[in-house]
Each structure stands twice: as structure tokens, then as C-alpha cells.
Amino acid sequence: MFRAAFHRVFYHVVVTGLRWFLHFGSRTTLRVYGTIPKGACVMVSNHISHFDPPFLSGWLPRKIDWIAMAELFGASWSRAVFTWLDVIPVDRTGDDRTALRHALRRLELGRMIGVFPEGGIRDGVRSILSGAEMREGAFLLATKAGCPVVPVVILGSERLYNAKNWLPWRRARVYIAVGDPVEPLAGAGRGAARGRLRDDTAAALVALKDRLMADCGLAEDDLPHSPQERMREP
After folding, report:
1. How far apart are CA 230 and CA 234, in angstroms?
2. Using CA atoms in the order 210, 194, 54, 180, what is the torsion angle rounded to 10 degrees?
3. What are the CA-CA distances from residue 86 to residues 89, 102, 108, 184, 190 (Å)?
4. What local confidence, expressed as pLDDT, does residue 74 receive?
5. Stretch 8-31: mean pLDDT, rounded?
6. CA distance 147 to 95
7. Which residues lie closer than 8 Å to 20 by C-beta, 6 or more apart?
8. What pLDDT sits at residue 188?
């Protein structure tokens, strides 16, 4: 019990500190078009920069237990920090059953698991916002746990790679949108349910991106670009 309480306090201290830090370089707009459910759910988002986890943890109104690559746990200090933040390490080279079991236990406790199903930072045609393929892990988790997937879109965070955008008079605009939960298909076999959940989530993410762009008056240049492109911008 003490360990769980320590993890919660540590998480909120770190996330609050990062949120204040990100205020120096960004103006963030949050649009919640659906309902972030209580209880177990899997949050699925596109991934455009290393700033995405603190943005999503800082602006979404629920604690997120992230799934992250095991390489982040390589040093003793990083292993301690990410463990205290309730991050679940996953070996991306194979079928990591240990990570799956840990994530399912968290879902049994009614927590929200965060996943970037692109498997890394992606832009352009490689982005799920352009219809690129997603990895299966998030949907395997959701179908096994019988819980919904919450689609989230983030735009603009990669602009923070450009040092000029940290100047007070030209802070980057970052946009986050949350859509309606996508429920697993009832009565279907697990494989069919997982495939349908993946396809429905993919469609929801593209529709959510289009709605966010329309509501906020965004243009093509606001869609994900590579960090290198953003760093070269004047």
C-alpha cells in the first residue's frame, strides 16, 4: 500500500513539474469530444515526439500507466524512475508475455494503460493519422481485458524540437483531442474482435484528426513532420 501511494505521489509531482516546464515552450489546446471512461481502458495515440508522454500525462485527466521500450530501463537510475512512474517495460524484439501479464493486472485494477501503437515516432505516410498500420499489442490487451480503447490525437509537439519555439513570443501550438471510447466487438472470437477493434480505432483516429483540424482551423503544415524538418524551420 505504501509503495502504491509513493508511486502515485511521485507520478503527480513529476507530471506537474513537466507540465509547468512545457508551458514555457507551448500553448496547449485540449479538445475532449467523447468521454474518458472510468475504470479499465487502453489509451491509444499517434506518436510524433519525445514530448508526447508528458503532454498526454499532463493534460489528460487520468493517470496513465505507459508501456515503453525496455531500453529505457537500462541504467539503474532510469529503471528506478520509470518503475516509480508505473511504466511497464516491453521487449519490442519479440512476444513479451511478461509485459502483457503486467498490463492485464493493471487493467484488472481499473487503470488506464497508454500505448503508442506505431512503435516509435512517425510522420507523413508512416503515421497512423495517414492510415498507416498499427501494432497489435494495444488491441490484444483490450480484447483480453474486455475494456474499451480511447483514441487520442496529438499535433504540434514536434515543433518543440526547434529551439526558437521556446522563445516567449513564439511558443509552439500543441493540440490534443480525445475521442469516444471504442468498444471491443461482443460475441466475436478473440482474433476477429481484435482485428475489428484495430480497424475501428484506426478509423476513429483519422476522423478525430480531421475534426480537430476543422475545429481549430489547422492546415497541412500542422500535421506531423519529422523532428529534423521542424528543427530546420526558420
Report:
1. 9
2. 50
3. 10, 10, 15, 25, 28
4. 83
5. 95
6. 21
7. none
8. 60
Grid cell locating 84: 516509480
The whole-angstrom separation of Cα 109 and Cα 65 is 12
Rounded-to-integer distance, Cα 105 and Cα 38, Å: 16
CB of 55 within 8 A of CB of 28? yes
48, three cell numbers? 510524433
Q: Are 57 and 163 in contact (CB under 8 A)?
A: no
How far is the C-alpha of 69 from the C-alpha of 47, rounded, in Å?
Answer: 14
127 within 8 A of 222, measured Cβ to Cβ: no
Secondary structure class of 74 (helix, strand, coil): coil
Residue 3 reports pLDDT greater than 90? no
Rounded mean pLDDT, 172-200? 88
**pLDDT tens string 43-102:** 999 999 999 999 999 999 999 999 998 888 988 999 999 999 999 999 877 667 888 999
Q: Which of 68, 52, 48 is nearest to 60 (CA)?
A: 52
**CA–centroid distance for 148 within its chain:** 15
* Terminal-to-terminal C-alpha distance of the chain: 51
- Domains defined along the chain, listed by start: 2-232 (3.40.1130)
- How many Cβ atoms from other residues are within 10 Å of residue 195's Cβ? 16
Q: Which one-letter DSSP state was computed for residue 125?
A: G
Handedness of CA 37, 40, 41, 47 (dihedral sign): positive
